[in-house]
Protein 1
Amino acid sequence: MSLSPVERFLLAHILYSYGGKVYFTTPSGQSPEEVLAGFLAEDFVDPSDRRYERIRRAFADALRGLKEKWLIELRGYEVLLTVVGRQEAEKLSRELYDELKRKFST
């Protein structure tokens, strides 16, 4: 399956940091993808950081792509990896994920 680097990283982040499922609340008027993208972006940069908005937009686009490919189920209150999504996430080893996360966070 063809995934962008951001899509693959987000799958691994949801798996390794959240066990494959994330609960969140969506304020009225905002899409679940936008809210979740902001929540996940805060795992790496502070919202006041100049990179935050660019990361949030990239994550939102990646989440929409993952949803269209049936790799995640995104509801108003949770996102969870599908069986195929978990398999794709596991293609990025925990060690490589940790290394990428460390580089991404600095």
Note: Residues 52-68 form the longest helix (17 residues).
Protein 2
Amino acid sequence: MVVIRDNSEFLAERFGNNFVDRLQKYASVIGFSVEIDSGTVKVEFNPDRPDLFSFYSLEYSMNIFDLVTSPEILTLEDSDFDVHIGAKALSIRPYFLSLIATGLRLGDSLPRIIEYQERLHETIGRERQAASIGIHSLEESCKAVSYSLKKSDSVTLRTFDGAMNGTAREILNEHPLGKKYGDLLPSQEFINVIEDRNGKVMSIPPISNSYDTRITEDSTRLFIDIEGTDRKSVFQSFFLLAYELKYIGYSISVPRFHGIDKKIITELVAENGREVKFSYDDIARVLGFEPPEDSISEALRKMGYIVTPSYNGYVTTLPGNRVDVMGAVDVIEDIAKGIGYDQIPFSEIPVQTLGTSHKTDELTGIACQLLIGSGYQEVKSFVVGPQMPFSFLKYRGDVTLLNPKSSDFSVVRDRLFVNMMEIIKQNRRRPMPQKIFEIGEVVEHGRQKTHLCFMIHGSRAPFSAAKQVLEYVILRLSGGSTEIRPNDEDGLVTGRSGDIMLDGQVIGFIGEMHPALLELYGIQDPVSLAEIDLSMIA
């Protein structure tokens, strides 16, 4: 999830006293949550609408939805500023774009634009691996910069926080950002450098900007660089930042690029104002009903599209920051949001047969009652989770997202206990023992299965306690008895783990969590668990 928060007094002063009320109404349209606590407004999003990840963009979108203003496509002006890009630099990080933003002084927007930059690093940029962003204060006299590859021992700068002044190699080895992001570089021998025409270092991406070109409240002319390894992430970051700065009040221009394929700039311009076409039949097929034509046009305008009726349908023009829209289905979904889900008419689904419960569903209900009766609390974790645990565990799900919106949601879980450990981590300071269970879907070797997992967390969480509960649950579910066959299960303690056998088949595993995995999650007390495949019992 993506969380943004700000002071309610600032929001009222900047956007009006009714801003929070409007925000709460808009939340029901888009699908995010709003919390107000001790003068702080907190908004929590799914990571699928990065164009709304700031209060500036939310205010702009609400004005469009309330028909206060009309949707606009950002005009990308040509600039007389030159950016010279070296081929060797592109061999390390092959994509580079930049923009110039000019306007009034940043003022109290300063911390908010920095927060937005880091938000993009975490989501679109995938912790700077796919895309890294630098924002610099640009002097009026500066008319050109270069992006080149240099020996790290020959580059000197003061880090943006002012904490260190040294060579790029020293920063990679000693500064926290160098230690954190240095692995994104193929080696420490060479590093990409952004310099002005006088040779003043502005940045060593993706590690750190220079203190000398840091942005301040008095900055009125900004240079933004976006570089990375993934074309899509770099393009998306460009547009998200360009529109964000537009909402703050800046004019955006694009420098003259030297040293990159001109086709990239042509593609960039085409992305801003791209068209999506669909027919009335497409709308009826996706939504399940046929909305009136006038309500379709109004809904699209309220959701930020420029609408042109066409033969038997519509052509919609999208602003460049609507990076979530992949095709017609996404736009049609916005029609439903613009109309209001509560306005969609009910219709009966023709059913030709009488329904019966699936055997797995019956077992799920029984297992749930048994574990609640045994003092366990049911939890629900996300089907998609982070890749972090699989630095220790072998991933066997075979389903990895190619371009996740957030690194926290990048793989489909292959076991329940991996994501359940996040719940244990969040509650590790609460009273012990903690007993939780989950019943849910996993994907193992490309096949979807229904698993049951229960955990005991506390200073007294022995293997025997998990085994006792397991035998009770299996007896009630199948009428049979289990056998534990010793086996070194991935992530569990050797000699304190094994396969769960029922009628000669392996239906799951049981054991105590490996100390290294506990350390990975920051958990100090032992954890015992058992996980079974309910479809093997059904």
Note: DSSP finds 16 helices and 26 strands in the chain.
